[in-house]
Amino acid sequence: MEIKIPNIAESITEVVIAEWLKKNGDAVKADEAICTVETDKASQEIYADTAGILTIMIQAGETIPVGTTIAKIDTSATPTKTETTQNTPKNEVVTPPVASTPQKKGEMVEMVVTPIAESITEVVIGGWLKQDGDFVNLDEPLCEVETDKATQEMPAIASGILRIVATAGTTLKIGELICRIEASEAPQKTAAVNTVPPTQQVVAEASVAQKDSYATGTPSPAASKILDEKGINSNEVKGTGIDGRITKNDALLAEKIIVKQPVTTQTDTNTVVVAPTGERVQRRVRMTQMRKTISKRLVAVKNETAMLTTFNEVNMKPIMDLRAKYKDEFKEKHNVGLGFMSFFAKAAANALLQIPEVNAYIDNGEIVYNDFVDISVAVSAPKGLVVPVLRNVENMNFAQIEKGIVELATKAKNNTLSIEDMTGGTFTITNGGIFGSMLSTPIINAPQSAILGMHNIVERPMAVNGQVQILPIMYVALSYDHRIIDGREAVTFLVAIKKYLENPERLLLNL
Predict the structure, then answer these.
(1) Same domain for 93 and 56
(2) pLDDT in tens, 402-446
(3) pLDDT score, position 257
(4) Active-site residue, from 31, 134, 328, 482
(5) Which of 132, 134, 321, 486 is catalytic?
(6) Which residues, listed in sequence order, are joined to residue 201 by a DSSP beta bridge?
(7) CATH number, domain with residue 63
(8) Which of 75, 139, 259, 396 shows its CA 20 to 30 Å from the CA of 313?
(9) Are 482 and 492 in contact (CB under 8 A)?
(10) What is the pLDDT of residues 302-333, one digit of tens each?
(11) Are 144 and 155 in contact (CB under 8 A)?
(12) Distance (Å, whole) CA 325 – CA 127
């Protein structure tokens, strides 16, 4: 059975294999996630179509077109999983056997990966603290499991002989089998160990573990990935985790060591050696697929559109006074804050319906007009700038707009935006003012034809009815495609935005 990259969305033609969740030769079950792929918009998992033995054909990091075969599954090979694991429903939490009552001698107790946190679906066996065949006591630590967030120990759920199933480095899903414990009584030789005072025994074991621990200088999976991207050897990093393990935070703080040669200066009588001053550190980090695609699209927009920008200024005092008067009541009633974005989104929606050219786009020599308003809101995410979409803004009130923006921003921060969240959009709003930008020329978000740029609010002297007043002013910018939008439409649109923002009652009365 061949596993191919499916059609994810109409605009996506290629993906990057970000990570394999299974190894070559592993047994996989039907509908089990086997790898993660990245597009310019989001990341998603690819699932096995059937059960069998996995053969990987495309390695992690490679860019491939949609429809490419990335793996094969040998359905004739039956995975040697235990019956308990195979019959576990996909979304069911597996509960380990309770060992509160003594087990019968020779009885085999299975230990599985227990749920750690709601967001964690798999763990990596960091290392075994006991060896196969060792006698273990109830609640005695057996192994360490690693997630992308932390490392913790797995205690024994029974006393007996340890039979290891998953070796160190193995990635397991929640509910999968780690080991078995053959219930038995403690060997007689363990009595001699108990003659050592407990305090001395703990100190001795801790010192040995700290000295000879496998974890010393070993990066966690998350740390290893970060170090690889930075091009840093783990030997160059000092671990601050348990037993000297290199944590994710250690990797984030690590910088590549570049040995600098001292500068020498030659004189007639002697040679003076001058030590280098200052730090000259370079780091190389692989560009993500999202960042690569953003780069290509921005350059394409500059090259393929007749982009032009027009500016105006807005007196923000009416909106600020309205917010100051009603923000507490608004938050108490709607359980969301009243920000500036809802005013801009609503003003843009009204103006777009009045000037449909700004809400249209060019497609194969035709102009496509949209009788609805889906506004893309630019949001900074860990992997780069994303533009999730608020749909049918023309029918939304201020509370719905604010809640929608908060939801999309939270998804962007947690990297949980879906393809549906990112697809579409007829117009974009970006707010550089939150970073302190006074003025900018935003680039169009293709295939859209225009983008509105917000900036910071600064008190400036303004002439009002022959009098100079100090008012909170924001410069606004509209970048547009001159192939479809003429200067008249662009200026008229921006003037309409200014009118709505300086007279917010017009938004409420739909005037």
Answers:
(1) no
(2) 999 999 888 888 878 877 888 889 999 998 888 888 899 999 988
(3) 59
(4) 482
(5) 486
(6) none
(7) 2.40.50.100
(8) 396
(9) no
(10) 888 899 999 999 999 999 999 899 889 999 99
(11) no
(12) 60
